[in-house]
Every structure is written in structure tokens, then in C-alpha cells.
Amino acid sequence: MAGGRRRRHHFSRIHAFTCGKASFKEEHSLIGGPGFSRKVYCNEPERATESLLSYGDNYVRTTKYTLATFIPKSLFEQFRRVANFYFLVCAILSFFPVSPYSGISNVVPLLVVVAASMVKEFIEDFRRKQQDIEMNNRKVKVHRGDGVFDLSRWRELKVGDVVRVEKDEFFPADLILLASNYDDAICYVETMNLDGETNLKLKQALEGTSKLQEDSNFQNFRAVITCEDPNANLYTFVGSLEFEDQQQPLAPQQLLLRDSKLRNTDFIYGVVIFTGHDTKVMQNATDPPSKRSKIEKRMDKIIYCLFAVLILISLIGSIFFGIKTSDDLENGRMKRWYLRPDDTKIYYDPNSPVVAAILHFLTALMLYGYLIPISLYVSIEIVKVLQSIFINQDVQMYYAETDKPAHARTSNLNEELGQVDTILSDKTGTLTCNSMEFIKCSIAGVAYGRGATEVERALSRRQETALGQELRAKNTGKISESKPSIKGFNFKDERIMNGNWIKEPNANVIQNFLRLLAVCHTAIPEVDEETGKVSYEAESPDEAAFVIAARELGFEFYERTQSTISLRELDPMSGNKTERSYKLLNILEFSSARKRMSVIVRDEEGKLLLLSKGADSVMFERIAKDGREFEENTKQHISEYAESGLRTLILAYRELNEEEYNQFNKEFIEAKNLVSADQEQIVERIVQNIEKDLILLGATAVEDKLQDGVPECIDKLAQAGIKLWVLTGDKMETAINIGFACSLLRQGMKQIIISSDTPETKSLEKMEDKSAAEAAIKSSVIRQLRDAKTILTTSDENFEALALIIDGKSLTHALEDDVKDLFLELAIGCASVICCRSSPKQKALVTRLVKMRTGSTTLAIGDGANDVGMLQEADIGIGISGVEGMQAVMSSDIAIAQFQFLERLLLVHGHWCYRRISSMICYFFYKNITFGFTLFFFEMYASFSGQAAYNDWFLSLFNVFFTSLPVIALGVFDQDVSSKLCLKFPLLYQEGTQNILFSWKRIIGWALNGVVSSAIIFFFCIRTMEHQAFRKGGEVVELEVLGATMYTCVVWVVNCQMALSISYFTYIQHIFIWGSIIFWYIFLLAYGAISPSFSTTAYKVFIEALAPAPSFWFTTLLILIAALLPYFIYASIQMRFFPMYHQMIQWIRKDGQTSDPDYCDMVRQRSIRHTTVGTTARLEASKRLEASKRLEISVHSSASKRLELSNFAASKRSEVISEDR
């Protein structure tokens, strides 16, 4: 028999939900109507085709293109860019007589650029295609008839197919659960890929199909499902199943979604209802928002400016040309005789000067088009892809524990990483590990656990206690040394470890406490057959930590059967382990509304026990009057644990009598089987009646630890001038304590708390008029914000750092249109901002508010599905590839494994990418302006006749071959300072925050440099070559010689300018820069050797004219020095008297002063933003506090001395007076 049954659990007898007994509700009446018309013939997929029902296949495509659409769609994408569209128009016009050059020479560069971009698009889409192929070719067992299940590809599945999915496999499509290896047809499902939640979901089939537990049962299985049409709602489902002439309702409890995983269940059988793009996960798939960096947006503006300059100079030239043309023929005299105005075409016709001017305008638009860099976009794309590869390959951002490197999922935002002003971060799983550790507990009013949490370390540093000094000494070692040997258990207390708890005064309470931890849960044990070691699959990390703690303290849970939980307990009488079983009668499940979980069990002595654990807010009110013996101490310990950043739960129990339990169980079963809209409320009311009069045992405390390196990373980011906001769903106390642990908060920092948890607000919430209550609460929030604004103004005058802490309810009102500006103004003025109890929507709204209203670059970082909105809303979304699924990573722009890697990602890669892209774009515009304006100056010299100064192919290949590779090398390899110095001097990052390297001032400076260089090149060439003999025979230069000489000077000048601009030379840059110059000479030699019908003006111009003439080489050298001299002088003065941050660091590096604290402090003092958070700010604050104390002592000492001297003088005067008397 395939897939024999191993466990037979009757969970319907113990769970609070209605197992297999879904009832028809109001929405089921919609079945068969619009939106609810899908009909599935189970085990007969061919019937859907016969019935003309057209359902899609299970093939999923995430690619942007198909083979048929690639060329048209990618061409459309390329020519959407204004520059590319302009060059396309020029390429078309180049085949008409108005063109100043040949058509083929203009088309080839455009083809090269567009083809390169299309190849890049093809490669990226092909990678997506490979991922699709891998997923679509996964295998699953499908029923092929006669009770036989064969492996089949996912892509081949059809609606109506019956599939068998086995443990730890993904569901290949949306399925309706028919049966499982459990008799009650339940299964556990992990939905991390869908919603980021790590807890397992319990699903159950209908009672009618639950007996189909063997392959052979499906030989004659037939059923018809009618359900809702495909939609995106993950949490609702309406349908009905007709099986054996019975109609049964289907609910979300029977729906298994594609991409979720089967856990803790050997196998399930299911029928396919939605395939491919009809599945709910694909219906939810949305294209990520299109993000463009601020540099790219400014680059577009520069191109528009160049277009304006292009039109302006074309217009000026055309007007001048029209005027000159109208005067060409006067009384039969020809002024510009060489144009033959007496016998000319329309282009130079003196009788039609306006038409000639218009046609000249078209010619000029094409001729001066070289101001626009044709290869700019494709060069930037190539550079960004290579930069992304460097980010992905950085071993210092590789996390060995999970085998995950950094992954730049998009290359569009590399330079944006160097301009981040505000980071908005999730807490759980991002700043913390989301790995719970049992660290402390309170039992019978006694606190156990001697470990120190991260928050306690921070608190001890604040209080400057002896413990703090001891902890600091310990913390100088590696973090990894303090990691617990058992995952989930970091408890140290010899009083109750190793069985010593039996010696404690309240040993019986401790026994009940540990037994409750081992029994009250829904975890499932898995025993390793080789080692015999027990591991646990739990719905949440907290629950796993409790079961592990019970095991380590002597109560090992090792087996769960259909109705029992088995433990190996430490017997306090004998001191030996004994096996005990507890009959599991009912599980009263945890929910966010209940905030507690209970189980009812019968022990071996026949006692009925109700074991319960939950939040203190709901548990203390259920404690009996005679069960509050340890309440005061427990509450004090809970408060201390919360201050230490720990998560707490209260543990309590009671004994039940038979009559009470039987009455409860009868009502409970009836309520579960009730067909009513308010069935859940009735069940909850019955459950509440049994969960009362409890006896308090104690409390647990688990720690969600900070990730390694978080405080140090935050400190470096703060020194870089980056502000950090924490947006978390946790309660305020926990968030504040984590803030202290990572130095976002510190002693002496004034906290502005905007909270709705006040007596005033609570009284308002009890008002009957809810709208009036909301208005009153909103006015209270506004008043708190305005009071805080007054405090902020005062603190600014005293240079005092403030922290803003706001809860979710207050944040709802603070984000309203008429309040959000006040909130943002306050938040921006504070050093730290912590938003507690934030919903996913509020996280996204806060991110949008900061991004839109400040105009600065925002970065959001998170690890869960609840962070997706925030990641997509921010300028840059960083996903942490942690334990909360891949939803955040799949929605992010860049994925990293740990928060600490953000330091290197921003301060090193971000700074380098920003500098490289900025320098690259500035240089691109410089070289094109230099080249383009030589054409304009020649047009002026030639009375705007439309004659090009250069050969057609010289024009076409300038951007593509002779100057493109050096600028790509600049964008990939250049470094102003090393990565080590980037991290040592975080203030260097402020160059990007202030946008120093791509400001309008710098852009205009490079443009003016290009104009000056082109003027020097043109006028020097004209003056040195216009009249004197050029060769030995006395020949003067002709157009082709002048053009080749000018072009040679341009190639030399722009490439040598690159050499002057580079801070970090590699052999690749040497090869590209000097190789481009050498390649120009090789090209001129080879191109000149081709037939003159093709090479035209370049025919043998180098061999016969340029190379033999000494004046050619002398002129090139002279112009090179003259053109670079203005930049050299400016750069020398600027670096000597007005150095930027990176130049100051280069200085001290060159002088060997990078380890000198005085020099380093001198550089750090240039920071424009004072560091107000982080460990550095905390140390500076403590130094200031100590200095003020010393000053007070000094003042007090001086005053005491002055008083003593005054008293001494007074006594002497009195002695003198008495003597005189």
C-alpha cells in the first residue's frame, strides 16, 4: 500500500474549531451566480474540455517578454527614451539630402547602442525564464486511473486532477483537501512564502472525503466542485462539493494554496481547482513599482537642457545662415562665390532665404546632435550591472550560517545607496533575530535565570554599575562566544537546573510549572532514529522555546498520539526519569483576540487539569482569589522582564471536577456542531466559562535577541548623518528597551511619548458617540504633538537630543492630512523616532510621508510580509533573508542576510557607486560638449554653411569606440578612498547625502570645462594651421587635415582629462585610456587605406598628410597642455584651499596620519550633522556629564576655599580690632 498510515490522530475531539463540519452560510447562496460559477469535475479533467469550460493550464510565466513579443516590446522600451527617439529621427533624416553626413554612418552607432540594451534585456529575462522552467518542471504524483499515482510535471496539471503531495513538498496549484494520513484528514501547512508567517496553519478536509486515505480509494472517485471564480483574496473561499449525492459546503479550511508547504503530515490527497495564473498567489502577484534614482532623474533634466542648447544654437545658426543667404547675390555679385548662389539648389537659394534657413535648421539639429551622448544610457546600464556583481560577490556581506550572500535584485538604484538620508526599519527579525531563547522565569514568586540580556547590558551601561563594567569586560570578546549551545535555551540557574529544583522550597509549584510548559502546546515531536534526539515542530518560535526549556529542566515531551501527550518527567521522590502520559481531552487554541491558550488533560491518577498560558493583560483577571499567593512578586518580575526587553507569558492551572468538565464538554461539542452565523462567539463564551478561577504558577520570559553587530552598525550610520526610524508592531515598552539596547535611546535623552494609552483616552473610548470619541482622541493627539513641538524648540536652543515614541492609535490620527505635517516636523527634529504597534499600512504611510514631504532618499528594511508595503514605498527596499519567509526579499530591491551588512552596503558600496555614477555622467556630458562645440565653432567659422568639420565615421564612432571604454572603467573601478577608510570615516558618506558630487554647480562646472576645452582646441588649431605651410612642399591645410587634427586633439584631451579625474588607477583603466588613443591612430591608418569612395575625406590623410608633418604632433601636444591647464589650476586651488571630505582623507592617508587621533578628529569635525544616537553619541554624552560633574565639584571646591579665606580674614580683622581696643 502506497504511503501507509503512521499516525491516527482524532484532532476533531480536542480542537476548538469545527473539524470537517463546515456549515452552509449566507455567502454559499451566491454559488452558481456571477463570480461564483467555476465547476470542477474531480478526477475527470477531460470533462471540463467537453463541457466547453476553458480553464488555463498550470504553466506560470513571470518573464517580461515572450519569443513573439520580445523584439516589438523591447524596441518600444528603447525608443521611449527621448534621446534614443531623437537619434532614431536623425537616423531616418540622414537618408535625405538635408543630412550633413551619410545615412549608414548614423544608423550603425544607434544599432550598436540599441542592440546592447536589448541583449541586456534578453539576458535578464532569460534568467527569469530559467526560474520559470525550474518551477514548472517540478514533479508531483497525479492520479492516472485504476488507483495509480504517477509523477508528473507541475505544468501538466489540469483543473480536476487528483494529486498526492508528500511531507515538505510545495503544493503545485490551489487544491481542495480531500484526505490525509490522519484519520480526521487534518494537515499542517506552512505559508511563509505567502504571508511571511512562520506558524503552521491547521487545515482539514470534509468528513465525507476524509476516509480516502489510500491510492486505491481513488479508482472510482467522482465528485463535482462548484466554487468562486479566480480572485486574489488569500483568506476567503466559497464553494460546495457534491460527493455521493450529498452537497457539502467548502470553506478556507479546505483550501491549500500554491507555494505553501506541507509540514508535519506524511501525505495529503487534493483536487486541483485553480491552476497557473488563476491561483491566488499569482492573482496577488503585482509588478513592483518602477523606481528611478534621483541622479537618473536629474540626468534626464540635463539631457533636456542639452536639447534646449541644441535647438538654440541650431536656431541661431539658421537665422544667421538665412540672413547671409539673402545677401549672397547682390546686383549680380556673389559674396560667397564658392556656394555658387547663381546656380544652386534650394538649400542655398538667395531668392528663398526662409526656406533655406528652415532646411538649414534641420541640418543643424542633426549636426549638433553630438552634444547628446548616444551611448550614455547603455554605458550606465553596463556599469550598474557590473557594480551589482561586485555587491553580490562581496564576501564581507556573506552570511555563512545561512549560506546567503548579498543579492542586488535590481541594478537601477546602486547610486541611490550613497544618498540615503533616512532609514525606516522593522524591529523583529530585522534588528532582532526572531529566534526566541528561554532566558528567565518567575516561579512561585521567585525569579530564576542569571543570564544578562542585550537590554540589561545597555541598562547597566546607562546606570554605570559594577555589573555594567563586568559586562563590558566580557563583551570585549567575540559575540559568538556567548551563543547558547542549545538553540532556544539560554537559561542559567543552578537552583533549578540538573534536577536541583526538587530542593527548592516550592518544588511542587516548580513541578506544576514545568509540566505545564511540557503539555500546554500544539508542538509535534520528531525523533531522530539514529541519535534518538527529539526535536520539535511548533507553530511559533516562542512555543518551541517553552518545550525545549521543559525538556532541559527535566520534563521531556517525546510523543503525541491520537489522544495522549507523553513525557519523561523527573520524579522528585526518586530523582529518576519516569514516563508519564496525559490524556489530551481538549485544546483551546491561541488567537490574537484571546491572547491565551489552554489544554484540558487527564493525568494517570485520573485528575482533570486545565493548563493555561497567556498574556498578563488577560490572565490575571482569571486568577482565583485563593490562587494569587505569588501575584505581587510575579507582577514585579514581569515588569523587570519587560524593562529587559523580554516577552512574558503568565502560567496558571486549575483542577476540574467530573461534573463541571462533562457539562463543559457537552456544551462545547454542541457549539462546535452548531450551524449558525454566531457559532464562533458561542464557542468562545463556553470556553471563557471554563478558563476561570485559575491558580497562578509563575511567568516565562523569552528574549528575541539583537542580531550581531546591530549597535555598531547603527552607530556608524549615525556618524554618517543617516537618521534611523524604527517601525514595529511590538508594544511600547519592548520597543523602548530595544532602543536602549542598540543605543537609539540613551540616558539623559528626553523622550517625547505620544500615547493613546492614557486615562483620558480610555475614558473617551467608553463614550457611546464613537465619532465624538474619535474627534476628542484626535484633538488629544494634536495637543500632545504641539506640546512636543514646544519642547523641541527649547531643546534646539540647548542642543539637546530628543526621542519621539508614538503608538499605533496615535499614529493613525498623526497621519491624517491635517496633522501629518505637524507630526513630520516634530519627527524630523528628533534624534530617534520609534513607532510602536504599527500596522503594515501605517508603515507604508509613514515611509511615503517621509519620502514625499522631505524629498530626501529613504531606505526601508524589513524581513516579513508585513514589511512589503514599506519596502515598495521607499526609494530603496532592503529585504532581510531571515526566517519570516521570502515575501520581503521578493519585494525588495536588494537582499542581505543581516542588518549589520547595511553598514558596508551603504558606507562602502553606496558611496563608491554614487561617486562613480556621478563622475561618469559629468564626464560623459563634458566630452560630448567638448566634441559638439568644436562643430559649432567650425560652423561659425564656415558661416553656418552646414558643412561638418569631421568625416562621417569620425562623428559616428566618437561615443561608441574612442571614448566609451574609459568612462565605463571609471564607473566600475574608481575609488576615492579604500573600503577601510570609508568605514573609518563615515562622514564621507555625507557627500552623497548633500549630493555634492552631482550638484548643479558641479554639472555646470563640467559643462563650462567642456566649452573652454572645445574653444581652445578649435581656435588653437585654426590659428596654428590656417595660413602657414603644413608640409614640406608648402601645402596649406585642407578641410580633411584640419578635421583630423582637431579630432585627434579632442580624443587626446578628453581621455587625458579622464586620467586626471581618476583617483584609483588599475591596469584596466590604463589599457582603456591609452588604448582608446592608440586605437584612434590605428583606425585612422586602417580607415584611410580603404577606397576613397568609402573613406572619402579620410583617404590616406594620416600617412600622407598628418604623420610626416612635425607641426601636427607639436600642435597636438600644445593643445593638450593648453586644454587641460584650466582644469589643473582649478583642481589644485580647490584641493589646497577648499578640500572636500574625500580629499581631506586622501591627504591624511598620503601623509600616513590615518591613525593619528588629532588628524582624524579634525576631519570628523567637518560633519554637517551632529551625531545624536549610537554608542559614540552615548559615550560623548557620558563624557559631557562627567565633565559637568567635575566642573560642579571644581566650582564647589573654589567656593569652599573662598569661604574659608573669607572666614579666616574676618577672624583676623576681629582679632586686630580687639587688640586695638
UniProtKB/TrEMBL annotation:
Chain sites annotated for binding Mg(2+): D426, T428, D863, D867
Domain called P-type ATPase N-terminal: residue spans: 40-105
Pfam families to which the protein is assigned, alphabetical: Cation_ATPase, PhoLip_ATPase_C, PhoLip_ATPase_N
Membrane topology, from the record: Multi-pass membrane protein
First-tier enzyme category under EC: translocase
Cofactor: Mg(2+)
Compartment(s) where it occurs, according to its Swiss-Prot or TrEMBL record: Membrane
Domain P-type ATPase C-terminal: 889-1139
InterPro entries: ATPase_P-typ_cyto_dom_N, ATPase_P-typ_P_site, ATPase_P-typ_TM_dom_sf, ATPase_P-typ_transduc_dom_A_sf, HAD-like_sf, HAD_sf, P-type_ATPase_IV, P-type_ATPase_N
Keyword Metal-binding in annotation: yes
Sites where the protein binds ATP: D426, K427, T428, E543, F590, K613, R647, T728, G729, D730, R837, K843, N866, D867
GO biological process, one term: protein localization involved in auxin polar transport
Transmembrane segments: 82-98, 104-123, 302-323, 354-378, 924-941, 953-973, 1003-1025, 1045-1064, 1071-1090, 1110-1130
GO cellular component, one term: membrane
Enzyme Commission designation: 7.6.2.1
Swiss-Prot/TrEMBL keywords: ATP-binding, Magnesium, Membrane, Metal-binding, Nucleotide-binding, Translocase, Transmembrane, Transmembrane helix
Reactions catalysed, as given in the entry: ATP + H2O + phospholipidSide 1 = ADP + phosphate + phospholipidSide 2
GO molecular function list: ATP binding; ATPase-coupled intramembrane lipid transporter activity; magnesium ion binding
Residues annotated as the enzyme's active site: D426 (4-aspartylphosphate intermediate)
Family matches, as NCBIfam families: ATPase-Plipid (TIGR01652), ATPase_P-type (TIGR01494)
PANTHER family given in the database record: PHOSPHOLIPID-TRANSPORTING ATPASE (PTHR24092:SF70), PROBABLE PHOSPHOLIPID-TRANSPORTING ATPASE (PTHR24092)
Family: Belongs to the cation transport ATPase (P-type) (TC 3.A.3) family. Type IV subfamily.
Function: Involved in transport of phospholipids.
Name listed for the protein in its UniProt record: Phospholipid-transporting ATPase
